[in-house]
Amino acid sequence: MAQSVLLTGASGRVGQAILEGLADEREYEWRLLDRDPPTGDRNYPGEFVVADITDEEAVREAMEGIDVVLHLAGDPRKTAPWESVLPNNIDGTQTVYEAAVGAGVDKFAFASSNHAVGAYETDERTPDMYREDDEFRLDGTELPRPGNLYGVSKATGEILGRYYHDEYGLSVVCVRIGNLTKDHPPIDYERGQAMWLSHRDCAHLFDRCIRAEYDYEVVYGISDNDRKYYSIERAREVLGYEPRDNSADHG
Ligand SMILES: NC(=O)C1=CN([C@@H]2O[C@H](COP(=O)(O)OP(=O)(O)OC[C@H]3O[C@@H](n4cnc5c(N)ncnc54)[C@H](O)[C@@H]3O)[C@@H](O)[C@H]2O)C=CC1
Ligand SMILES: O=C1O[C@H](COP(=O)(O)O)[C@@H](O)[C@H](O)[C@H]1O
C-alpha cells in the first residue's frame, strides 16, 4: 500500500533534493508543506499545503492520514537568532511532533544538523579532523555540543524526538545533516568537504528513513567522503543507507 508522506519545508534546498530524487517513487503519496507558496521553478509531486508550522490547527489538519513525516521546515541559518529559532525550530518542531502522535503517524525523520555538535571542533582538533588521515569520529552516541543557538535548536529537536518516542512510541530518526550542495562539494572548504551530502545521497537517505524500521536513532547525513569526522555506520546499519558519492572524487 502507498505510504502517505508529509514533507515540511518542501520548497527549501533539502526538500527539493529529496523530491528531485524521489518524485517518481510511485509508492509514496506526498503532502508538501511550506509557509511559502509553491513557485513554478520547483518540483512539487503532490498536494501542497501553505502553512506555518507554528499554526497548530493547520499542522493538525495537514497531518490527517499521514504515515511518515519528514520534518525539514525551520530556520537553517547558523547565525539565526533566538527570536527566530525559538518559534520556527523549537516551538514549530514540537507542534509537528505533537500533531504526528495525535494523528497516529508511524515514523518521523527530523532534519537535525552538524551544528548540534559543532563545538566538538575545538582549536586542538581542527583543521586535522577535517583531513583524510585523521581518525576522530562522532557517531551519534555523544552528547550534543552546539556552538550556536541554531545548534541548540537542533539539539532540542532531537530531545523532543526522544520524548515523543519514549512517551508515545513514535519511531524517530534524527539526521544530523552535513553540508548539502548540488553537483559538487564545497570548494576550498575542508570542513564542508568532510561533511558533504550530495543531492542523490540525500534523497536516498531520506528514502531509507521512510522505509526502514527503527525506534529512536541519531545518525549522520553525509556522503561516503574520504575526509570525514562523522561515522555513517549507524545510518548504514539501521537504515540501510548506501551512499554513492565521495567529495574526494571531485578534484
Ligand atoms: N542545507 C543544509 O546543508 C542543511 C540543512 N539542515 C536542516 O534541514 C532543514 C532544511 O534546510 P534547507 O532546505 O537548507 O533550508 P531552506 O531555508 O532552503 O528550506 C527551509 C524551508 O522551510 C520553510 N520554513 C521555514 N520556517 C517555516 C515555518 N515556520 N513554517 C513553515 N515552513 C517554514 C522555508 O520557507 C523553506 O522553504 C532545516 O531544518 C535545516 O536546519 C541541516 C543541516 C544542513
Ligand atoms: O545546518 C546547516 O549546516 C550547513 C553546513 O554548515 P556550515 O557551517 O559549514 O555552513 C549549512 O550550509 C546549512 O545552511 C545549515 O542549515
TrEMBL record:
The active site is at residue 150. It catalyses: D-glucose 6-phosphate + NAD(+) = 6-phospho-D-glucono-1,5-lactone + NADH + H(+). Residues 5-180 form the NAD-dependent epimerase/dehydratase domain. Keywords: Carbohydrate metabolism, Glucose metabolism, NAD, Oxidoreductase. Pathway: Carbohydrate degradation; pentose phosphate pathway. NAD(+) binds at residues 88, 113, 150, 154. It comes from the Archaea. SUPFAM superfamilies: NAD(P)-binding Rossmann-fold domains. Signal peptide: none annotated. The keyword Oxidoreductase applies. GO terms for molecular function: glucose-6-phosphate dehydrogenase activity; NAD+ binding. PANTHER family: 4-EPIMERASE, PUTATIVE (AFU_ORTHOLOGUE AFUA_7G00360)-RELATED, NUCLEOSIDE-DIPHOSPHATE-SUGAR EPIMERASE. Catalyzes the NAD-dependent oxidation of glucose 6-phosphate to 6-phosphogluconolactone. Homodimer. This is NAD-dependent glucose-6-phosphate dehydrogenase. It comes from Natronobacterium lacisalsi AJ5.
